[in-house]
Amino acid sequence: MIPLAGRPILTAVQMWVAEAAHGDLAGLMEQAGQGIATAVRRLATGAEVLILCGPGNNGGDGYVAARRLAESGHPVRVAASAPPATDLARAAADRWIGAVERLADAAPAPILVDSLFGTGLSRPLADDVAHHLHRLAASARLLIAVDLPSGVATDDGSVLTEPPAADLTLALGHAKPAHLLQPAARYSRNARIIDILAPSGKVKGEGSTTFVLSTPDLPEPGPDSHKFTRGMVAVVAGAMPGASDLASLAAMHAGAGYVLHLGDADGIPHALVRKTYSDAALDDPRIGAVVIGPGLGRDDTARARLAAALASRRPLVIDGDALHLFDPDASRHAPAILTPHAGEFKALFGHTHSSKIDRARAASARADAIVIYKGPDTVIAVPDGRAVVAGDASDWLSTAGTGDVLAGATGAMLASGLDPFAAACAAVWLHGEAARLCGRSFIADDLAAALSRVR
User: Could you tell me which residues come within 8 angstroms of residue 1 by beta carbon, excluding any fewer than 6 positions away?
Assistant: First the structure.
């Protein structure tokens, strides 16, 4: 089983194209079933396994897994929601020599494998199927979903029928958007990939331009480093200086060598350089990134400061209030990273019913800027169409100021010399890891400080 980090994300159509290009669909199903059986056997520790098989190829994978478990001597039963309806599923079911119980009649087992519906589901489950899936899951000590939990949509992360939350999800071949996009991702916990191998090779994902966020290669100081080579970040303050203070603190803890807070507030840390705001301060050629928006306000003063930052030709991180004042269709002279949450994104770009990944891509292309579309699932998009998705964010990030911390960390990464896309990805990773280190019931100040521990 392979972690998702760094792996391609394929939509349902992309996965079907990859499988068709491979050619040996029966071989792929055999390898998928073997991979499922191997994972289940390791986790079941001898306990009886009940595999629920649907009518399609996901059910076919379940029949193969059952046969492989039985051949190894592991106790296994099969229950079906309907007879096999595809040639591949029928062939797999024919090779299963055990009984096939009706889903409605199936007794519980300690290990339940949901192989009812996977990639490509487009409509809700029948009420009776959903009822018995929940009934059997409630009595199992371990629920394993094959490819996706039955009831979630593959591409946009929507939930067609609420499934029981899987303890482990075995993604076949590649990650799918639903493994990372909410609300579907909350039901496919602990997703791991099973490589699908056959004599002619493996299912390829070269066509994907979307990947799962992975551990970044962060810049490190060397013997010749000094504060400016590590990166100088200017943070523009405004009506609520506490937010810009948080962004400044985060930039320092994320690794910036010099952070300049342009505002009138005083306070610690003493390492933070504070100056009264002036447009001229943004002309310092040593500034590697300007962070603007946290606590900026939306009045005429805020508009003037945003205009000055845009005119400065310094790389920008545009967050918070500045996003409400920003024109995504206006031309700029320097790279920018936009960091909207859902409300800011809607105000800036409107709303469509496409997936969050597609919305982020379209917004990035329109604004000609990197977009960090924040949330419990964060999508980082670049104008050329590439995207990275970070799932499994800490629910405890839902507290005031954590977005300001991300803005500051992004400024530090951008000023460090990373290209804007790499800087955005690195900042999101640092932010997520810091939240995990903080644990429960932390505040944004704790989160900013934890960035040093992550580094």
Answer: 39, 170, 192, 193, 194
Domain membership of residue 6 (yes or no) is no
Flag whether 339 is marked binding: no
- The answer to whether residue 219 is domain-embedded is no
Consult the annotation and say whether 120 binds a ligand.
Answer: yes
72 is in an annotated binding site: no
**Residue 375 labelled as part of a binding site:** yes
Is 360 labeled as ligand-binding?
Answer: no
151 marked as part of a ligand binding site: no
Is residue 234 within 8 A of residue 262, CB to CB? The reply is yes
Q: Please determine, for residue 34, whether its predicted confidence score (pLDDT) is greater than 70.
A: yes
Was 279 annotated as part of a binding site? no
Does the annotation list 57 as a binding residue?
yes
- Residues 192 and 239 grouped into a single domain: no
Q: What pTM was computed for the model?
A: 0.94
275 annotated among ligand-binding-site residues:
no
403 in a labelled binding site = yes
* Annotated binding residue 11: no
**Is position 174 annotated in a ligand binding site?**
no
pLDDT tens, position by position, 87-140: 999 999 999 999 999 999 999 999 999 999 999 999 999 999 999 999 999 999
Check pLDDT > 60 for residue 200.
Answer: no
**Pair (155, 277) in one structural domain:** no
189 and 308 share one domain: no
**Statement to judge: residues 30 and 174 lie in one domain:** yes
Residue 308's alpha-carbon distances to 126, 292, 301, 303, 408, in angstroms, are: 58, 11, 11, 9, 19
Residue 341 marked as a ligand binder: yes
Tell me: pLDDT of 382 over 90.
yes
| DSSP string of 310-368, one letter each residue | HHTTS-EEE-HHHHHH--TTS--SS-EEE---HHHHHHHH---SS-HHHHHHHHHHHHT
Q: How confident is the model at residue 203 (pLDDT cuts 50, 70, 90)?
A: low
- Residue 23 counted as an annotated binding residue: no
33 labeled part of a ligand binding site: no
One domain for residues 289 and 171: no
| Domain limits for position 189 | 12-201
Number of separate domains in the chain = 2
| Residue that is written with structure tokens 């609420």 in the block | 162
Kindly state whether residues 243 and 173 are assigned to the same domain: no
Per-residue confidence band for 255, with pLDDT thresholds at 50, 70 and 90: very high
Instruction: Specify the CATH number for the domain of residue 16.
Output: 3.40.50.10260
